Amino acid sequence: MSNKTTNTITLPKKLFDSLIEAQKNWERVSNELEDFLLSLDKRFIRKMKKARKEHLSGKTRDLMKLKQELE
After folding, report:
1. First CA to last CA distance, the chain
2. What pTM did the predictor assign?
């Protein structure tokens, strides 16, 4: 026999469902907040514009080849 103890709580299903919904909403809001904050970061915007320009001009690298180089 094991000496492990288990602590279990019982929640009403409605409360549990509310907690799950709250977590989903928090995830959505935190992602939106992150996007908003990044949109205010001039340095981030410059880097993204540069990366987009390089991508459109064909300055890209194959991900699998890059991974092999880094191994």
Report:
1. 46
2. 0.58
